Amino acid sequence: METIMYLIRHGETEWNQIRRIQGHSDIALNELGVRQAERVADRFQGEKIHAFYSSDLSRAHDTAAKIAGNFQSSVSTRTTLRERCYGEWEGLTYEEIRERFENQDEASCGIETFEDMQRRAVAAMTEIAGSHPGEAIVVVSHGGLINSFLHYVTVGEQGTGITRIDNTSITIFRYVDRRWEVLSVNDTDHLKA
Questions:
Q1: In the annotation, is 88 catalytic?
Q2: Residues paired with residue 4 on neighbouring β-strands, in sequence order
Q3: Measured between alpha carbons, how far is 66 from 10 in angstroms, rounded to an integer?
Q4: Where does the source fall among the domains of life (predicted)?
Q5: Is pTM beyond 0.90 here?
Q6: Which of 10, 43, 86, 144 is deepest in the core (most CB within 10 A)?
Q7: What is the Cβ-side half-sphere exposure of residue 61, based on CA atoms within 13 angstroms?
């Protein structure tokens, strides 16, 4: 039995707008992010969704709650769905990082490795999908984590360093016979109205 997973990036935050690294920092949606969350929620009107999951960070949870609200449903949160931890880089712009940490490697700054984040993403998605055979589920997470999962599923053809994941974009996966397949990537049609 197949599981369909709608994997959605959270709505925009002020830090997204000014390109400040968020990582595990709990930054709220900005006004545009709230509108984006409302639009993606409207996109699911008339769909049959069986469960809703999100990262425990408010930008993801609040986006998921907008969608789940249309179904009079609650959202299950998972810390495993969080963005990559960026340690000392969190709260800084890319320019500030280059100035302050020019001669330091990522590990010395407390940054989670890409491989660790990807393993966490794959384990979380597989556990969630395995709990919903034959159902459709919504999972709201973060751009880096979604891209790392996409990279895994496509064996590097898409994902990190290749694919852009926009705020409230929908990337759809099918999980069947313990294998993942990509159905669509970074769909933002709901934002074009």
A1: no
A2: 136, 174
A3: 11
A4: Bacteria
A5: yes
A6: 10
A7: 14
pLDDT value at residue 111: 98
Q: What is the pLDDT of residue 57?
A: 98
Query: Residue 121 in contact with residue 148, Cβ under 8 Å?
Result: yes
Single-letter residue type at 96: E
Residue 175 CB-half CA count within 13 A: 23
Q: Taking Cα atoms as reference points, which of 179, 186, 136 lies closest to residue 159?
A: 186
Report mean pLDDT in 10-residue bins for the chain, 193 residues: 98 97 98 98 97 98 98 98 98 96 93 98 98 98 98 98 98 98 98 87
Which two structure tokens, joined as six digits, stand for 77? 């949160």
Question: What tokens appear for 107 in the block?
Answer: 């590990």
User: Cα(10)–Cα(58) distance, rounded to whole angstroms?
Assistant: 9
Catalytic-labelled residue, pool 10, 61, 142, 151: 10
What's the pLDDT score for residue 24?
98
Q: Tokens 């360093």 label which residue?
A: 161
What DSSP string describes 12-37? PBHHHHTTB--TT----B-HHHHHHH
Residue 135: how many CB atoms within 10 A of its CB? 16
**Is 83 in the active site?**
yes
Among the options 12, 38, 61, 83, which is catalytic? 83
Distance set, CA 146 to CA 46, 108, 153, 178 (Å): 25, 25, 11, 19
**Beta-bridge mates of residue 76:** 53
